[in-house]
Amino acid sequence: MDFGYEGKAVVITGSSKGIGRQTAEEMLKLGAKVMLVARGEEALVKAQKELSAYGKVEYIVQDVTEAGAGETIINAVIDKFGRLDVLVNNAGGAFAESFEDIEVSDWEGDLNLKLMSAVKMSKAALPHLKENGGAILNLTAIAGKAPGASTLPTAVSRSAGLSMTKAMSKDLGKYNIRVNAVCIGLIRSDQIEKMWQRQAPELSWEEFATTGHDNTPLGRIGETTEAANVITFLCSDLASYITGVAVNIDGGASPAL
C-alpha cells in the first residue's frame, strides 16, 4: 500500500518526544524526509540520532511562540529539503485549571502556544504547500469538543484550533491543501508516565494503563503509536479526499462525535 510519502518533506513541531517523535518515525519509514522542531537541543539530538536509522531527518532548535519562528523553521525546511509537503502542528502542553484559578497571563500564554503558533506556522508554510498541494494537521484535545470542569484555558485554545481547522480547509481546498485535526485523549506521554510513577510506581505500565479507566470504553490508555498512525494516515495520499475533519483518538472517552 503506497502512502505517497516517498521523497516528500515534512515538518513536525514539538517532535523531540512523544506523539511528534513517533509520527516522525512512522513517516520516515514510509520514505518522507522530516524536520524535527523543539526547544530542547539535547532531546532533539537524541531523537535525530535514533530516527536516522529510518531515513533523512534534520532538526532545528526553536520556540514556536517567538516572533518570526514560523519563517525561521520553514526556511530551514526548504534549505535542507528543497520543498515542503506536510506540516504537523504538534507544539503544546497540558494546562488545565478552574476559571477562578487562572490569571489573564496564563490565557495569553496558552493561546499563543496552542493556537497562534499553529497560525504562524501555517502562514509561513502556505506559499510552499501551494506549489504541490499538501496537508496540514493540527493536534488538539478531546476537551476542545467537550470541555469539562477545570479544563481552562486549554479547552478554549483547542476549540479555537478546531474552528481554525474547519475554516482553513474551506479556504485552502482550492490549492489541493487538506487541513485536518486530531483530538487526543489519554495517550502515553512523558506527562502520563510521570503520573504513573507518582501515583502507582508499584504497577507495571500494562497494569497502570488498564486500571481505573472505566470512562473509556476501550478501558485503557492509548499507545503513542496509535496516535501517530492516525496522523500519518490523515497526512498521506491515502486520505486524499479527507479535509476539514477532527478525529478523536481517545478510546471512545469523549461524549462528542
TrEMBL record:
GO annotation, biological process: bile acid metabolic process
InterPro entries with a match to the protein in the record: NAD(P)-bd_dom_sf, SDR, SDR_fam
Keywords: Oxidoreductase
Gene Ontology terms, MF aspect: oxidoreductase activity
One Pfam match: adh_short_C2
Top-level division of the source organism's lineage: Bacteria
Transmembrane segments annotated in the record for this chain: none
Family: Belongs to the short-chain dehydrogenases/reductases (SDR) family.
Protein name: NAD(P)-dependent dehydrogenase, short-chain alcohol dehydrogenase family
Organism encoding this protein: Lacicoccus qingdaonensis
